[in-house]
Every structure is written in structure tokens, then in C-alpha cells.
UniProtKB/TrEMBL annotation:
Gene3D superfamilies: D-Amino Acid Oxidase, subunit A, domain 2 (3.30.9.10), FAD/NAD(P)-binding domain (3.50.50.60). Signal peptide: none annotated. It holds the Pfam family DAO. It comes from Steroidobacter agaridevorans. Keywords: Oxidoreductase. Residues 2-394 form the FAD dependent oxidoreductase domain. This is D-amino-acid dehydrogenase. The keyword tRNA processing does not apply. Belongs to the DadA oxidoreductase family. One of its GO terms (biological process) is D-alanine catabolic process.
Length: 400
């Protein structure tokens, strides 16, 4: 079967791989000059299989007034028309019952993704700085620690081990925390979580697909529109002409909304803008991935580089780098671990996370025959990419 995958980010590359392994004839299209240049380029780097907690929860309701008044440094909200319907759905999800249900669904999907990545790497030994060093989610708040304990109990019921540990154990696991400049009350420790460079993975996987004759990867090509005949998607229109297929899979992140305009589809996706800084490691560079839950920032060691990532700005489709937010991210990181990296010489990046109100990605067929989706992963695109790709590849033949 001829399948076009739109988007050569981490989700699109993984989708192409699993489709190709299903004996499909796969073509990947991307508007950038090379793979992995969109939301995959500078993401946090953490493969967060144990920490799939949704953004929409009860705690978000408590933070909302501060966000709207500009007092929450980790999140900035600029009200616009597309945000309103998405925001209403998001707030509706902010109950303990709904948040727990979504978190558990994501937990199972993340477990599938970990297994799918392991299977992929046995077949394609890619070089992307992969490290299974574990992850610490640190807090100085008793309320946050109690929430971590409750979620750890929930996850244990579903076969996922997350240990709640004290400050002494944190230091034993990650000695670099000796230089941590904020009180540590405790942490959640996920021993099996990993880290890796999503962009390097994406480029390496696309090269593997090309060199092994598994897929065509065409970069620098804009998909102008989906082509529909008698109600069915039969291909895509590009500047070079019509490219026909039996199925089209959209893996274009936030760009999916534009691609489905004119079709009887409404995708509940909104861009949450995130930032990262990538720099040479400093004197106290952590080896274990760290998440500061109080400042909502993460540190990840990626093949000789340190990445600091965070912030979630609701500013529409603007993916430009705001120098003020870069300074804010640097300030947040320097408050707790200033010698993690040489952040004064860091490479800044900003990207748009395609988020759904529930945090659950949109994976599978649509009401439009021949059209499939693998989008809406939010901040978990790297974590969930292989799992949703494998899921999509299994579903596609049943819907054609």
C-alpha cells in the first residue's frame, strides 16, 4: 500500500519506520530542509516513560489566577480566539478523576513506546546519545511531594515503579545535587526513564530508512493541500504536482490544523510554546535527568551537551525566540544549578508543542477515508513517538 507521511519530525520518522516494516511503500514529506527541524529539534530530551502526568489537573486550577496576572514565570498566557474553545475543554479536564484517567492511558502508551523503541533499536542501531540513567523529579514543597506520592501509588497499580525518596537519597543518586541552591524536600525517582537527542534520532532514522530502501524522505517540500476525490483522500498537492497514495498520515504537529481545513474535521490542538538552551556541560552537570517541579524546568545530559528546557507559553502560532523568555529560562536554571552548563554560551531554541486538552494524542483513522492522524503529543512527543507510530501502523490496514 502506498502511504504518504506528512512531517519528518520524531513522530513522522517513527511512523514511517513502523509502516515500512509493515510492507507499505512509504514516502515522507517535510517542508524543512532536513528531518527533525520542527518541534523535535530542541526538545527537553527526556524519555519520560514514568512521568506522564497530564498538564490538565486540579493543581492547574490553583495556578491559573497567577498565570492570568503574569505572576507565574513558567507559563505565559496571551488570550486569543483559538485558545478559548481549547481552554474551555482544558479546564473541564482539570479534575482528579479525569486527570488520573488520562495519566494512566498515557502511562500504558508510554510503556508501549519504550518497548517499541527497544525493538526499533535492535533492528536499527542508531546513534543519538541514548542514556538509560533514570530521572529525578525534585521538589521543595510538601504539597507537591504528597501529590507525587499519590501518583506513585496510582502508577504502582498499573505496574510502573516510581520511588518517593528524601533529599539524602537524591544526593546519593545524583551527586551534582550537592550544588543545588534550593531546598530539596524529596523527589520521585524513575529508575527506568531515559534520555536522548530527538533531532539526532530523527535524522539517523530517516537516513536508515533511505539507505535500507525502506522509505523515500523528501525534504524542502511543502504540502499545499490534501487531494480529495469522491470523498476520499487520494494524495497530496505539492509545488511539483500531485503525489498519489492509498493513505495519508499527518504527523505535522501543530501544522495538522492547516492541512485539514476544508475537511469535516476539527482538531482540538493548540500550540504550547516551549524553550530550551543547549550548552557545554559545567562543573556540576548532572548525569541523571532532573525535573524541578517547583520551577517546571528540566535538565538532560545529551551526548556531551547539557540541555535546559521549560516554559509553556500560550501565544498562538508564534514560534520566534523571545529574548525575554530565554533570559527567564536561564534565570530559572541558574537559581538552582548554575554550574550545570555554560549557559552564557548556550544555543537558544523555541518550538510549538501540539497539545490536546486531555494530553492524549490523536492517533488513527478519521471520518475522511484515506486520512490518518498521529498528532497532538504535547510535551510527550519524544516519549510517545514510537508507541503511537506502532499503534498507527497496526490500525492503518484495518481502516483502508
Amino acid at each position: 500500500m502506498r502511504v504518504i507521511v506528512i512531517g519528518a519530525g520524531v513522530v513522522g520518522a517513527a511512523t514511517a519506520y513502523f509502516l515500512a516494516r509493515g510492507e507499505h511503500e512509504v514516502t515522507v514529506l517535510d517542508r524543512h530542509g532536513r528531518p527533525g527541524q520542527g518541534a523535535s529539534f530542541g526538545n527537553a530530551g527526556q524519555l519520560s516513560y514514568s512521568y506522564t502526568d497530564t498538564l490538565a489537573d486540579v493543581g492547574m486550577l490553583r495556578r491559573l489566577p497567577g498565570m492570568l496576572l503574569g505572576r507565574d514565570r513558567s507559563m505565559r498566557i496571551q488570550l486569543d480566539l483559538p485558545l478559548l474553545p481549547w481552554g474551555v475543554q482544558f479546564l473541564w479536564r482539570c479534575t482528579r478523576r479525569r486527570a488520573d484517567a488520562a495519566t494512566v492511558q498515557l502511562l500504558h502508551l508510554a510503556a508501549r513506546s519504550a518497548n517499541a523503541l527497544e525493538s526499533l533499536l535492535k533492528d536499527a542501531p542508531l546513534d543519538f546519545g541514548y542514556r538509560a540513567a533514570g530521572k529525578l523529579m525534585i521538589t521543595g514543597s510538601g504539597q507537591t511531594l504528597a501529590g507525587l506520592q499519590r501518583r506513585a501509588d496510582l502508577k504502582r497499580q498499573h505496574g510502573v515503579r516510581v520511588d518517593i525518596i528524601d533529599a539524602k537519597d537524591c544526593l546519593a543518586i545524583e551527586p551534582a545535587l550537592e550544588a543545588w541552591r534550593s531546598p530539596i524536600l524529596g523527589a520521585a525517582y524513575a529508575q527506568n526513564d531515559s534520555a536522548g537527542d530527538a533531532e539526532s534520532f530523527t535524522r539517523s532514522l530517516c537516513n536508515y530508512l533511505i539507505t535500507h530502501g525502506l522509505a523515500r524522505v523528501i525534504t524542502g517540500t511543502e504540502v499545499q493541500s490534501l487531494v480529495r476525490h469522491r470523498g476520499r483522500i487520494i494524495g497530496v498537492q505539492t509545488p511539483s504536482g500531485l503525489l498519489e497514495s492509498d493513505a495519508v498520515v499527518i504527523c505535522a504537529g501543530i501544522g495538522a490544523r492547516q492541512l485539514v481545513r476544508g475537511l469535516p474535521l476539527c482538531l482540538p490542538i493548540y500550540p504550547l510554546k516551549g524553550y530550551s538552551l543547549t550548552a557545554a556541560p559545567g562543573a556540576h552537570a548532572p548525569k541523571v535527568s532532573l525535573t524541578d517541579l517547583d520551577r517546571r524546568i528540566v535538565f538532560a545530559s545529551l551526548a556531551g551537551r547539557m540541555r535546559l528546557a521549560g516554559l509553556a507559553d500560550c501565544v498562538g502560532d508564534d514560534d520566534s525566540i523571545d529574548a525575554r523568555r530565554v533570559t527567564e529560562l536561564m534565570r530559572l536554571g541558574s537559581e538552582v544549578l548554575p554550574e550545570a552548563a555554560h549557559f552564557d554560551a548556550a544555543q537558544p531554541w523555541a518550538g510549538l508543542r501540539p497539545a490536546t486538552p486531555s494530553g492524549l494524542p490523536l492517533v488513527g483513522g478519521t471520518r475522511v477515508p484515506g486520512l490518518f492522524l498521529n498528532v497532538g503529543h504535547g510535551a510527550l512527543g519524544w516519549t510517545l513517538a514510537c508507541g503511537t507510530a506502532q499503534q498507527l501502523a497496526e490500525q492503518l490496514p484495518k481502516r483502508i
